[in-house]
Amino acid sequence: MSNDNVFALKNPGVANGVRDALTEVLREGARSLLAQAVEAEVAEFLARHGEQRDAAGRLRLVRNGYLPERTVQTSLGDVPVQAPRVRDRAGQLRFSSAILPPYLRRTKTIEELLPCLYLKGISTGDFSEALSARSRRRTT
After folding, report:
1. I want to staple 83 with a disulfide (CB 3.0 to 4.6 A). Which of 20, 67, 79, 112 is the partner?
2. Cβ distance 64 to 76 under 8 Å?
3. Phi, psi angles (nearest 5°) of residue 24
4. E runs forming strands in the chain
């Protein structure tokens, strides 16, 4: 018989504590679509500048792996992303994704929601009102 009386508590505020299959599928789909969109951006950038050569006759722009993985906060939760690298051998051109800017950590909807939640929480303590007002504004 075990004398272990430690129980794991499930906290809905902790992302790893609760698993929802539908949310996980949506998050994986968002990650996949984001990766495809950024890859299409890179392919278009390379096609646009693909004929350029350096002094040695090699392609001037080459794929150079990926930047370290980072997470972007979305309304679905944290979505892991990896931005591709493109190297210009001449050092003049630089690829920057319009969809996934270098320092993006939160989507615009999350950025707009945080001050509203903060102000409502400080003044009234009622976050549900702020969340419902935000969702109504989004649908109109």
Report:
1. 67
2. no
3. -65, -40
4. 61-66, 70-74, 77-81, 84-88
